[in-house]
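Internal tracking record. Fields below are filled automatically when a chain is submitted to the structure queue. Please do not edit lines marked as system-generated. If the sequence contains nonstandard residues, flag them in the REMARKS field before resubmitting.
Queue: standard
Priority: normal
Entity type: single polypeptide chain
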Amino acid sequence: MGRQNILEDIVAELKDSESSDGFCIYGRRRIGKTSLLRELERRLKENEELVIVYFSLWDISPLSTRAFVEDISDAILDAYYKKGLLRIEQGIKRAFRRVKKVFARNLKNAEFRIKLDRVELFLNLKESEKPDYSFLFREVFYMAEEIADRTGTKCIIMLDEFPEILKLKNGYQMVRVLRTAHENTKHVGIVVSGSIRKTLAQVALSHASPFYRQLILKKIPPLSVEEVQMFLVKYATIKDRKIAERLTEVTGGVPFYLHSLGRISGFSDLDYSVEEFLEEEGNIIFQEEFTKLSEIEKRIVSAMAKDKKRLVDIAKDAELSSSTVSTYLPTLIAKEIVKKMERGRYSLTDTMFALWLKRRVEGRSFSEEVFEAMETPKSLKEMYELFPDRSKSSVRGTIYRLLYEGRIKKIGRGKYIAI
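SYSTEM-GENERATED OUTPUT FOLLOWS
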């Protein structure tokens, strides 16, 4: 939803057998980059002359250079095997002749076997051996180039969460190797994606990065009100623009949050959906992100969650000097946690994170308010009257959750009490 123009541009370019252009898809967390790659994969797979390799660096466990090289080569071979193209035995043997020499030169104990219907590569490494994985990584891409050439196909390699490559021992060198391989291949296209702009800048966006001006950049923006309204019409048959405007305000136009809230109540009660999300998923994903911040960063974002936007107000609430806040803000902006609105004014980038943090720093959550109200027996009607600003379904849903968690119990006829 709201990504059609981007998808159509990328599909048209990658389908062109004469084009060797690649793409860098970037945007903030949870904006839908992986979903876009998966949809791109689905559309491109319809073309018989294209072999699509989707590979997420988050799937490598544990993350290591060796695992990366082995897994990416397996992914390429599996993609050709599933396409039925590895049965072209003679062409594959030629393609692997070079790779065999390369691996043998780097790994003395490498054993190779080629079956009729697919290729299997066996490696037995001695603990003392230290192969040049950067060199092997390059050869894996040249292998893909030769197989594509022999089979009359174009191989599209999608590397999701690409900045994770920098966590490898020689990650930056691997990026440079990939750039060189991309420049020297005609039948292999690459699509990379990443979230944190500062990290992605090191590999693709900044003028000093290896892939600078080597890839076509596609930024994935949040959904607009119009796009959210289209989403509501398609998935919930809701045409009310006011609901679309409220959803956009609450979610910031982030597809992940839209889908999450929709699963909870089908958008029939937005307040309840938001409360449920913050209590359940929010306390997991946002707590983890908050914990990773330094103590000073926590104080700064906590002040901003209380609607402090001017630098001087943030510093005062966080009990820090303005110069200290000024020092840390660029880092928080680079992490895409904070965004600069205008001169001297800042806000939290993620609206749902801001809501979660506001509840955390201002005291009790709504669940805690309901729980405390039930120190004496209360009926649903009495609870509705206690919280007139909350919808009935929000109050009722919170009571049922507390009941399920065993924090309250039902007594008498239609009344509940805290345990």
